[in-house]
Amino acid sequence: MYLIDSNIFLEILLARKNKEQCKELLRKIKSNEIEGICSSFAIHSIEATIERLRSLKELKVFIQTIASMEKLLIWHSLLADDLTALNIASSKKLDFGDALQYYCAKKFNCRAIISFDKHFDKLDIPRKTPEEVLKKQ
């Protein structure tokens, strides 16, 4: 299983340079070729970004798309998890969001964190780009 970071979705939504490889990764997750997990925190962060930069119509499309991805596990943290992530943030010098993503990856024994965020490079779980993961398929 791989943790899917919020920037994978944002690459697509904001039409950034890596959007095609991100789309392919999400297609592979939707077709159950790759197991993925994402935190509800990341989903809510993306929702806030879409609402701020785009429209409620696009937000609805995003939510419907995520809801249709039955093979993408969404992890909902508890307050105890958030407190653990805060401790990780301090010890690993991460912001809260990255610490929560890392904690989720650890909790679910993820093989890697799929992200373009280099803050994950200094951790004991490898960071992979979508392209790196797709090459192994």
What descriptive keywords fit this protein?
alpha/beta; 5 strands; Rossmann fold; 5-stranded parallel β-sheet; globular; 137 residues; 12% strand; 7 helices
CATH superfamily membership, which one? 5'-nuclease
Which structural class do the helices and strands define? alpha/beta
Give me the number of helical elements: 7
The CATH level-2 architecture is identified as 3-Layer(aba) Sandwich
CATH-derived topology: Rossmann fold
* Low-confidence runs: none
CATH class category name: Alpha Beta
Return the domain count.
1
* C-alpha geometry: globular
Number of strands: 5
Biggest sheet strand order reads 3-2-1-4-5
Helix and strand pattern: EHHEHHEHHEEH
Biggest sheet layout: 5 strands, parallel
Strand fraction: 5-15%
Helicity range of the residues? 55-70%
**C-alpha termini separation:** 13 Å
How would you describe what is shown here?
The protein is of the alpha/beta class and 137 residues long. The chain has one domain (2-135): 3-Layer(aba) Sandwich (Rossmann fold), CATH 3.40.50. Helices cover 58% and strands 12% of the residues. It is built from seven helices and five strands, in the order βααβααβααββα. The protein has helices at 6-13, 19-30, 40-53, 56-68, 79-92, 96-107, 130-135; strands at 2-4, 36-39, 72-75, 112-114, 127-128. A five-stranded parallel β-sheet has the order 3-2-1-4-5. Helix 1 packs across helix 2 (19-30), helix 1 (6-13) packs parallel to helix 3 and helix 5 crosses helix 6. The radius of gyration is 14 Å and the shape is globular. The two termini are 13 Å apart. The model has no long low-confidence stretch (mean pLDDT 95).
